[in-house]
Structures are given as C-alpha cells and as structure tokens.
Hints:
Largest interface: A-B, 94 and 56 residues
Number of domains of chain B: 1
Number of helices of chain B: 1
Distance between the termini of chain B: 21 Å
Strand order of the largest sheet of chain C: 2-1-3
Oligomer: heterotrimer
Amino acid sequence: MLTNADFLALAGEPGKFQAKINMRPRYIDADACTACGLCTQYCPKHQVDDYNEGLALTRPIHIDYAQAVPATYYIDPASCLHLQHDTCQICVPVCQSHAINFKQQPEERILEVGAVILSPGFGKIDTKVLEKFSYGKHPDVVTAFEYERMTTASGPFMGEIKCFSDGRHPRSMAFIQCVGSRDIGCNNGYCSSVCCMYAIKEALVTKEHDPEVDITIYYMDIRTQGKDFDAARERAEAIGIKFVRARVAGVTPWDKSLKLTYSTFDGQHKFVSHDLVVLSVGLESPKDAAKISQLTGVALNKYDFCATETFQPLQTSREGIIVAGAFQGPKDIPESVTQSSGAAALAAAVLRDQRGKGVVLKTYPDEQQVTPDDEVRVGVFVCHCGINISSVVDVADVAKYAGGMEGVTYYTESLYSCSQDAQEVLKQKIKEHKLNRVVIAACSPRTHEPLFQETLKDAGLNRNLFEMVNIRDQCSWVHANEPAAATDKSRDLVRMAVAKARHIQPLAEQTVPVTPRALILGGGVAGMTAALTLADQGYPSVLVEQGAQIGGNLQNLNYTLAGDQVAQHLKGLVDRIKKSKEIEVITNAELLQTAGFVGNFSSIIESGKGKTKKEQTVDHGVIVVATGGHEHRPDKYLLGQSKKVMTQMEFEKQLTGRAKNRAPGSIVMIQCAGSRGDDLSYCSKVCCNHALKNILKVKAINPDSQIIVLYRDMRAYGMAEDAYLEARKMGVVFIPYEVDRKPEVSQKSHQVQVSFFDSIMQEEVIMAPDLVVLSVGIVPDGTEKLSKLLKLPVTANNFFLEAHVKLRPVEMAVSGVYVCGLAHGPKPVDETIVQAQAAAAKAAIPLVKGFVTVDPIISCVDQDQCIGCGLCTSLCPYGAIEMKKVDKKRKAETITASCKACGICASHCPTFAISMGGFTNEQLISQIEAFGDRPKDMVEVA
Amino acid sequence: MGKAMNHREGSVMVLGGGIAGIQAALDLTELGYYVYLVEKSPAVGGVMAQLDKTFPTNDCSL
Amino acid sequence: MSDKQFNPRILGFLCNWCCYAAADAAGISRFQYPPNLRTIRVMCTGRVDPSFVLRGFIEGADAIFTGG
Lengths: 942, 62, 68
C-alpha cells in the first residue's frame, strides 16, 4: 500500500510494465506513529478540513478520520509552519514515540508490474455550475457531499442538522437533482446514475434524525433503476417525502430563507421557500483524467471518462491496462465493487503464469491454550455503530451492566467496533486483560462474525472463543421508538451471551482439499463469460445449458444502443467456448441434484431427450449461477391479440428485417408495461434504453415516423442520456403518465386505439397509431426451483439475493456459490459481462487456495456414549453421519465435509452422545437459564 | 502488503485507493498476486469513507 | 399494577439461515415490532431439543418461538 503517492510515468508492455511513483513525505514515521493524536492537539495552526468537505477545521498535522488506513498521522506541507516558514516544530517534542521527522524527502520508486488497474474514482462538479443556486453566496445552500458530512454521527456536527446561517434546525428542505448532470450547459450531458439514490438516502436519514422536517425532491426523472431501489423510493414517499417533477431555474436568498424558482412540465412557473437547499451534484471524470490518459495511453470518451466497449466493459484501449469504478463511467458502490472484482479477474488472466510467485502468506501467532480448567475471563465490547445503536439503546448502561456479570473481567464501549482501530484495541485488550472469551454486542454475526474471529486469531485466541450479540438489526433498528425497552432487551441478550460464552471451548480448525473445477448453470452471455474468464485464469468448467444451444438472450438481440453488432460478438463468444480446452458444454441439460459444500460439490446433470436421455455426475469446487431471465409478457394492452401490438424485442426483430413498412409512420411506445407496480413491482432497468435504441433505429429508417413515448421516468442513465437527448431533438414526444392513470389499449374495428391522459396538455387523448410497442419487464428463469435445490435465498421478486448488496454483490450466502446476469436482477449486457467476470474472480479464489477451511461448528459423536442405534444416520438430511464398525460394535461417525451443522442428530440422540461445536447442550441450556435469570429490578421495565 | 521489493513476479499496480481500488486489490491478493495500491491522498478509502450510510439499506458505510 | 397490560416474555430459537436472516432483514428495512422477544441463534431449528423448550418455560417464558 503506497499512500501519499503520485503516479508519474508508465513504460513497458503487458506482463512487464515499469511504473514510476513519487512518494511524498508524510514527515511522520509510519512505524512509530501510534495515532494517539497528541500532535494535533498541540499544533498551533488551523486549516480547512477537506475530509469534512470544508465544514470543519483541522490542523496541518492530522489524520482524516479515526478508522483511516494506514492509521498514521501526516503533515500537510502546504500549511505546516515549519515546512513553510522554518519555525514552530512544537509537534516534535510532543510526540512520545519520536515519530516526527522533518528530514523525510520525496522518494521515487519504480514498480515492475505485470498489469495495471485504473481506479482513480471521480471528480467533483465545478462550483461555477452551482452559482445559479446561490451556492457560495448563501450558507444554507450545500452540496450533497457536504450534507452527507453534516448528517454523519461521527461528522463535525455529530449528526445534528443545522442551518449555517443562524444555527436553527431547518423546517423545510429541498433537494435539487441533476446539478451538473444531464446539463449540456456544463458539458455534462450524461446522467450521473447515483444522485437519485443518494438524495433519497439523505432524505430518509434526515427523517430519521427529525421526523417533522418537510422535504421536497425536485427532479426530472427519478432513476432508481437498480435492484430493489424503487422500493426505497416508495418507502420515502410513504413517510412523506415529496417528489416534484420540475426543473429548478435558480435559488435566491429571500428574507431568512431561500427562494426556489421552478417550472413544472405542464408549463407553470412556481416559487417556494426552503430553509436548507441540498444540491444533488453529479459525478465528473476525475480531475487528472487527461493526465492519466497521457501517461498510460488509454483513450477517453467525449466526457473524459475512460473509453470502453459494450462487450469488453473493463478493457481500456491499451492491453494490460484495465479500468474499474467511476472512471469507467459514473456508477454506484455495488457496481464499482463488481467491476473491481471483474478487473481483478482480467488482471489475473494477464498474469496467469506468475500466480502465487510474489505473495507473502499471512501468519498468525501461536494459539494460546485454553482448557476447561482455566479461569474464565470474558471481555464484553458494546458497539455504538455511530448512532445506529446508541441513538436508541443506552450503550453505556449495557456495557456497565455486562461488567457486573460473573466471569466478565473487562468491558468497554466503542464507536464502530468493526473499524480498523477498534480491531487493534480488541487485540490489545485481549492481551492486556488475558481475555479468553470475547463477547461483542453490535450488529449481525451473519455479516461481522468472520471479521472479529480473524482479529481473535491475530491475537492468538481460538476463533470460536467468541459470541456476538445482535443489538442493532434485531434491537435498535426494530424498536426505534422504545429506547427503554430496547436497552432492556440488549441487557438480556448480553447476559445470555455471556452465560453461553462461559461454556465455550476452543475448536480445532479442519481443512479439506478443493476440486479445481466450476459448474456453471446457464449458457447465456453471463455463463459464457464466466466460463471464459475462468478458463483464462486456467480453471476448467462445465457449462450446463437448458436449451439446445448456448447464447441465451443475445440470440434475440441484434444491435445495442452504442451501435454494436450483437450477432458478431455472440459468434465470437461461442467460438471461443468451442475452442477452449477448459470448457465442457452440456446442452439440453438440467441440474437434478447437488450435494457437498464449497470445494467439494458433486452434482447430477440430466441431459438429452427421450432415448438419448442420460445422467452424469460432475465433481466441482464452485458453482456459478447464470440462469438468466426472459421477457415478461403482460396479459393486457392487447399483446398477443393484435398484430399492431408488440414488445420492444419483437419490434427490434422487425426493424432488422427487410419488410417495407417495418418502421411505420406513427408509433406509440408504452414504458413500464407490466412493470413497476403493474404485474411486476420492480423496474427492469433496460426497457427505457431498449426503447431509445429502437427509436433511433426507426428514425434512421424512416425519419418522418412520428413517435410518442408514454413513460413514468425515462431511465436513460449514464451515457444513454445522450440517446434520450438525440431522440427529443429528432422530435420524438415523451409524455409522462402516473401509475394510477395508466394508458389503455383497445381494439376498434381494424384500428388499435391508445387512450391516455396527457399530463403536459392536461387533457385526455385518444390516438390510433400504426403500431403500439410495449416496453415489458424481465422475469428470472427457474430461480424458484434452483433456490430449493441449492438452498439459495431469493428476493421478493424471485431474483437471487446476494450475500451483501454493497460489498459482496456476486457472492451468495451459501459459500462457493456465485451469481451473475439476469438471475441476479435485470441489467443490460455490459453490466452482465462485468458481473460474470466478477463472479469468475470470486469463484477462482477457493480454486486458487486449493483447500477450504471447514467451520468447526459441526457435529461430533462421542463414541463411548454412542449405542449404535442409527437414529442420527436416518435423520440426517445431508447424509453426513455413517455407521461404522468400531471394535465389533456399531458406532456413528460424522463425515466432516458433508455436515451442515444443523444439529438434528444432536437433538435426537437418546444418549446425548452427539455434541455440536459452538452450540453444545451445555452452552444452550446456560443461555436459556440466563434468559430466566433476570435481576428483580429489571422486571418492571419490560 | 507492507514494505516490498520493487520487482516481484506476478504483481499488479492498482491506481486509486477508493472502494473500487481496494476491492480489486483484495481480490487480486486472494487470487495469488502481489498488489501495489497507489493512492495520492494519505489514506485509502476514497469517497465511501466520507459517506454516512449507504442506499438503499442505510447500512453504515465504513 | 392490576390494570397492567399482559406483557409476555418470549424466548425464541432462530435458525441462522432463515429466521435469523429474516430478523436481520426486518431490521434493515426498519420494520418495527414489540420488544418482547429474546432470541437464541442456532444453526438450524433441528438443533432444538424438546428439553430446551421445557427448560424455557421453567425459566419463566410465557411463550416459546421457534423459527426455522
């Protein structure tokens, strides 16, 4: 990790690049600095704090935030008195660890690397663009980035929202969307794709802080096209956040507040006053984009983002250089994370022969022996989680209460117990107080247990000597209005956890080798890309396709919005698959059964039909689910009943044909036909762009064609906004409709009639176009069946649910299973390709390791007590207990690799011979006892 | 990742230490490659470290 | 205290993979429910020995909830 470093030059070629880096001095010795913060307290000079968006002051010697990595302070040479004027040096004697070193010099380093990934992020909109909204003139106009810091509990105002002008709490607030985006005035014609989401988030957070505040979001289109994003918008509307479709002309100071002038789509001009105005500023290409392009030779697009192609979304114009994140185009966190994993896979392919040659394996200290005879020393750590927990639960009270329990030798609170510095504190306290059990009361063990267990290992403690109490997801968040009861519940849960912790014993780690092969379900673009990406890294896979040939939905597409010829790319993919020695394709095939676990799956595949039907068993280490989806055909709008009504996909086929009147003179397109609150509750993300793509094609064939698009929100996010603008310039009419006033399609003699309410003219309109084209949604294929087969969770809309929406977007909760493409959610082809590359990167991780560690929470049979009745063997749903002859007697034995830790065997064993690691009878009984063991003074609170 | 020789076989430079760069670096490390994560500011984390909560689940972003 | 509303104490056994996950999901979407439940996480409700349920009643639970 090289921080405070500038990239200067790049020479060489793929596999052998030389990068020149300039390491600027921190003036602090990173190894000596303990991040105690004493230096900042003594530093006499003030400077504006950029980390807090200039909303606070800091000193030249500082650290941006407590959880920063590396946790080393640094001196800003631009404002330090010593470095500027050769005076001061107060910090030098103050620092107890003698870490300050003004003699540090810049250091140039040449890095020899095989591949380069560009992830420089995004730039911010020039403040000049914001001036018409009185930004810089009136203190109560802030950008969304500044507002983010204002709402943050660990921010400069501890999350208290105030107007800067006079410190009052705002009663009414406005969010103005598309500031510096979709605005050709500042040469940012594109849509920034994230602002709608963050505005809704910030509005929801504001309501959490103060339910009384009145919030209006002024927008042109709400583009919450991501997976399950519409639901958040509906939640925002439900709690009273107002959405006004309008273009804001300007903001001017008005008395004590601000006057906002806007025009609505029906041509009215209005003005309204707000106390605080938040500008939803867009994302720009990074400020140093031109320099990066010059140094590396990668091409940029017209908006200075890195230029890439639909079918190679992460490949820059220069081989060996890969792009990820917002530099590739504005995007949100999950998509950035997905791109990064995809980029890792591509870089790994460039360097496949050098894998493992330069890495250093992490080592852990020797494990401290803990025996049942040792004194129990429990440490309890109660987390504030910013304000997520502490705004409801009295954290100090819970921690103090824990301190009085039997066996507890240490207790404390922490602001974010998952942060890097908190891990250091945890390690230190384990050593200092000789703790041999750790209880953390914070969020869910389902997400954070592995993190803390890793820290335990680092501290030389067996990772099972740990128990987590969920006082956030299952307490503060769900009892937000009952602080006393929530505190009481937290006390109870902590008491139960400590009781269990007293009985926890260390468990030995077990490892099992991995079968280095992937099973990929679905032979569409997602499955094919995943297979090829794995093959490029050197791993074989079996590709299972339900249909007669591979290709999936790409077979129905002809061209893309960017102008790519789909058939050509599809042929390229299929040819590569056929040539690859690493990929075995099974068509007309279906997965019947899967057993095993990450690293050691075994599946039965049925293929062929009739007489050629056969079953085969495939052993594999990982599974990539790429089962795809298909067009949803709503049973309305005369679809399938009239030849004059068709879907966008059918229309695309017609347009690429040769028929004379394939692009008729009058066309009405209906967006969200069957989606967003109709048959399907969600947005399918691709339909708006699909409509735009076909519109431009129609106009190319028949420029005189009159096209009307009836829409809810045109979600032409990212660079597709250019196509939306182009369509409008060509005279295509876009008319929004409300969900409670949907357009209707009816048959009248030979004509098809569309009736709708024109919200621009404010009147009912009936038209008889030559053609009605429906933008229908996407539904997943067979996720219900597969979810039962592989025990994978699905969302309410039947798409597969990823392990973590933000940080683990292609992994499933079941380890060793990864998801990509339409099976995960509706998305266009470039995003599908990236996701498949990311899934292939994640799937390769266990294959690279070569072994997996089995969670030691599995069952264990005490063969002395076992009477060989076989009850457990017959009950085990995973076939993970077998009967063996031991000294001529029948005894049960667990098959380590297959056990899922369900515990059915343990609860049915008549002689209590089976115990479950981490969930022994003793531990659970003590937890139940602690449930009943309530101190008397607490009874009244409940 | 620590201090390192300037030439190691199988290494990748990741330019930019925001969430994208960090994720790429972590995945590459797990895939068996040595990574130089080059960041111009004094700490990695990028913009995500400035965020309070994330959409749509409002989880803490740090 | 005679007019005090019945305020049961409920002990719950939640399966890590489904009910516990659902309880987390309820939190993520800020779904509000009464604070009368105290939970014990198990890897599967198959782990719940009938004696655990009886033990719960002995310890003063008004109701036992198993979710899996």
